[in-house]
Structure formats: C-alpha cells, structure tokens
Amino acid sequence: MTGGGAALAPRDRHWRWAMGLTAAACTAALAAGGVPERVQFGALLVGVAVIGFPHGALDPLVAGLGLRLGSPARVLTFLGAYVVLAAFVLGLWSISPALGLALFLSTSALHFGLGDTDRREASSTSAHALRVLAHGAAPITLPAIAHPAPVSEIFGWLVGASGSAVEAW
Predict the structure, then answer these.
(1) Is 4 helix (H, G, I), strand (E, B) or coil?
(2) Which of 3, 22, 46, 136 could form a disulfide with 109 if both were Cys (CB 3.0 to 4.6 A apart)?
(3) Gyration radius of the chain over CA positions
(4) What residues contact 68, with CB distance under 8 A and at least 6 apart?
(5) In 10 A of CB 159, how many CB atoms?
(6) Average pLDDT over residues 5-16
C-alpha cells in the first residue's frame, strides 16, 4: 500500500476488488440462508475457467519455475522428494489420523498464508507473521466456523471418528 494519496498498484487494486467481492458474496450468501449447490458448482467452474486449476495441481510446474529445475536430474530429484513427502504424510496419517490431519491443516495454512502475502509489504516481521496466519488460516477455519457439522463430518471421515466427536475439537 502506498502513502500520501498516491495511486494504488494494480496488484493492490486487484486484491481490494477480490476481497470486496468475496465479502459481498459471503454476506449475500449468509443473508439468503445459504447458496444452492448448483450455484456453488457454477461459481467453482467459473473460478477454475478464469483463474486456472485448483491449488496444488501445478506444484511441479511452479517448483520448476521457482527452483530452476533445468536438468532432468534435478526434476527427478524434486519429483522423488515430492513422492517421499507424500508417502510420509500418508504413513503418518495411517498411524495417527488426528495428528496427520492436524499437521496437514497447519502446513496448509502456512502454505496458503505464505503464498498470499508478500514480506516486502509488511511493516515488520510480526506484522508479516500475522498476515500469514490470517490469510492461511481463513480458508480452513472459516468454513469450520460457518458450517461446523458438515466440516466435522468430513474431518471425521479423514480421521476415522464420528462427526460429533470431531466437532468437539
């Protein structure tokens, strides 16, 4: 954000528009008592068509650009590490589903938060950490707060427990 009344950068304008439209859509959905599944599915299709694949679908491509995996050996090393990490997560999940889910959700929140924030835009390290926490935790905690029973049921399937047992967490 710029001071002194200077014009906003395109990225800042885009972020403000996205946040405003999201807030308006959430408010409208709450006021209407929910959104029909058909409308939700249509919004998902439009989002994928406009923005692209859901998060994570292009991780190897993003890693290739960010890590400069120019050689086939480096690409194979990355893919091997990716598969080993996935196997570790599945192994942990099979041994302790609740711990696996908690670590997965925590890692997801950190990943989302770091991806959605820019350290250079924060006034301090603590301000950046708060932004990472807010941006990263929101996509996980807000649905759980707004719809505790269905989210608990889904988490229950993931940890092998009843939805009511998970809802207490």
Answers:
(1) coil
(2) 136
(3) 19
(4) none
(5) 18
(6) 67
Q: Give the three-class secondary structure for 101.
A: helix
Q: What DSSP line would sit under 14-83, residue for residue? A: HHHHHHHHHHHHHHHHHHHT---HHHHHHHHHHHHHHH-SPTTTTHHHHHHHHHT--SHHHHHHHHHHHH
**Is the pTM above the cut of 0.85?**
no
Distance of CA 65 to the CA centre of its chain: 20
Question: Tell me: the pLDDT tens digits for 23-49?
Answer: 887 788 778 777 788 887 787 777 777
Residue 137 burial (10 A CB sphere; 0-12, 13-18, 19+) = middle
Angle subtended at Cα 154 by Cα 112 and Cα 53, rounded to the nearest 5 degrees? 40
